[in-house]
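Cross-posted from the bioinformatics board.
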Amino acid sequence: MRRRTGTSGLGLALALALPVAAGLGFALRSGASSLTLVMAWPGLPRAMLLSLLPGLAATAMAVLLVLALLGLRPPGFAVLERLLAPMLAVPHAAAALGLAFLIAPSGWIARALSPWATGWTEPPDLLTLNDPTGLALTLGLVLRETPFLLLIALGLGSRRLDHRRLVAATLGYGKAMGFALTVWPALYPQLRLPVLAVLVYAMTNVDMALILGPGLPHPLAVQVSLWMTEPSLAHQGLAAAGALVQLGLVVLGIGIWRGAEALGHRLILTLAQGGIRGRGLDMVLGPLAFLAAVLFVLFGAFGLAGLALWSVAGPWPFPQALPPSLSLAVWSRAGPDLLATSANSLGLAAAATVAALLLTLSALQGEAPGRSGRMAALVYLPLIVPQVVFLPGIAAALLPLPVPPLLAVAVAHLVFVLPYVFLALAGPFRAWDGRLAAVAATLGGSPWRILLRLRLPMLARPLATAAAIGVAVSVGLYLPTLLLGGGRVETLTTEAVALASGANRRVVGAYGLMQAFWPALAYALARRVKPI
Amino acid sequence: MNRRELGGLTVASAAFWAGRGWALDWQSLLGKARGQTLYFHAWGGDPKINDFVAYVGQLAAERFGVTLTHVKLAATSDAVARVQAEKAAGKTTGGAVDLIWINGENFAAMKEAGLLFGPFAESLPNWRYVDTVGKPATTNDFTLATQGYESPWAMAQLVFEHDSAKLATPPLTIATLAEWAKANPGRFTYPQPPDYLGLTFLKQVLYALLPDPKVLQSPVDAAYDLSSLWSFLDALHPNLWRQAKAFPANEPALGQLLADGETTISFAFNPGRASAEIAAGALADTVRTFVLTGGTIGNASYVAIPGDTSAPEGAQLIANLLLEPEVQARAQDASVLGFQTVLNLAVLNAVDRSRFDGLKQGPATLSPAALGPTLLEPHASWMTRISGDWVTRYGVAP
């Protein structure tokens, strides 16, 4: 058993560690010498704060919202649950553009209220987007990451723990308090890795921060990617050094988060020992959770609707709430391109997801009980090391080799798809009742037969969810596709981000909808899978 | 230049990156180009441009059997960085980039680093139509002589745009523009430097503020006093869109603000932009174009060929195709791109000239006469200096 652990996890370990280590080595070598340069940049302290604070705030809010929504299951929760897949499927850039059009002073909310309620005949000069403190960015991240965590939490089978809520309720605990004291402590350890992935993403993302975040200065990761694309070689060193600072910042952010976890743990213990039933809490939190659920549905639905409407809109001046004329010009012009790039996106997603599932299953199957920690640390790697740090190194390492661009991109996609597939699958796989395997083994079942005929069929739902997440992650990848494909591999996302740099809402709307469509289809199919 | 002339100075290693541009017999070039596949790296943020590149690709396939693939970049420097990385990795052929839409500092960086194929431009068959005298920017890219290492394909000039429904007579100087902004706070802004168009606006301001604008044509003196620019901006910023606490990212984002009615005065580096956007239904048909008294900055867009391309013949063929009068007239059509031609219409034959005469100008486009004089781009060092200083002054805190 022990020997098998070594070899079966090897593929996963190599696929995760090798590219990241190579890229990191490159970054350290090229970045360390330029550290003094980046330290001399006057915007550094503020850029670091703008990475750290919105990242921590958005993650904390997302986790608290998941706690409240799962604990209280407010009215509308079922609708929200059904909409999670399409909401998650919208790529980050398109989701950010959808949100921007809702909250901008010339956006949909202002249009709906003007001029009858506000008196505005021209858009007001209000700083609702790109605000210096990053509030719009934080809002966007919360709207985007809460559904992700919620989906993972539901996939972990929090309903299995419903009997605990019942016990708490019979003891007189309120819904929220009962959930927090009995279910959450069992759920959170399985949710921790996804939460940390969210934290790192929130601190280091480029596409959402460019659209929603402040620009004076930009958050650090955005600034690093801007330096990376400057033509002069001096900026390359600056970018590499900035990436190293970003790496340190992410380590700090994770440290702060772990500290907050410890505080939360202590708070739950104190509350439990105090015996406070917290029934009054439901009266306050209930409406808030309901409001949150409604807002998620509204922002998700209207964000997508905004994209759809812009893709068919003629001239659409302020303050008209609907475009006065519609046209299919964008769709008919972009149609052939949309199909061709969809084929690329789906081919890459399928290859990366299948490979990731195989590697994950072989690693999990060979895992000895209680030794999961080592693998978890490895899975962290591509999620903790920011993309802007290690991708240029991989690209540089592959350049002299005769690797076809499509293969290089597929490998890069695997590096990012693998952790999410592993995170989505590891919990349910390990939570599977091992006594069933013992029973099957006494009946003469071989380990492989038990895996294929019993364990996997029973885990069909989490498997399908993991595959859908894999497809969504792959379809949404921008930087890896661009850097390793040398621009020769066109996917829906590379096209959409290139178009988003031109801020043409009509075409971005069409690409955003197509980008959302394929992963949404994958999620919808995953939901139809029934375990035996 | 031909092979014999070069022979005396050919050193095998130097020739590979810098010297592959010997004038080839055009017919044999066409033969070699047939069947080649080219990756044209060009900014992909505008569907009108993407459609135009697709049209050029269609012509290349039909007439010459060359396959042109448009790699749509978010920033031209992505392609420059790619070629740099390839050279660092020792690649001499089979590079990812076969042709780049380029000018200014990206060209200067590639030329200086020896990353370009050439010289080739002046031996293209259609070079004889290029108006190198009337449009000096076709051989002078940000004061750097192109020396045939890039081929021009479109003229650009800074023009201002205003919504005539809200503002009938726009201000025609930088000084009166600032006064107008003071009286109408929040309705004007510029893209955030180091964005190219934002810096172009600042250079236009420099032309208005400096006592002797001729200094802009030489490299900037490190000690040169730019305080007049900063005090002008210090006074202007509180009156800008969002009190200058946020800036649009680039030209399309600035254009979207005009389309959304958030701004009343805007600007672009394409005299035909407003008309093309109106034709596409993306801009109110009351928007009009104007230029400043004394002229506005103009330059040319070029294509260049990286030295490690595996298809130099096909790349030259495309550069030549872009100079074809038929293609130039299409680019100038307000409903297609609205880019001004680089050709000298006087040397074209009657058929080709009529292609231009027949173009509808579009409601918002100024006639070539009304566009007024073109101011030359300052030396690239000015851009670096004001970009760096701007970021330090305004870019690191709201």
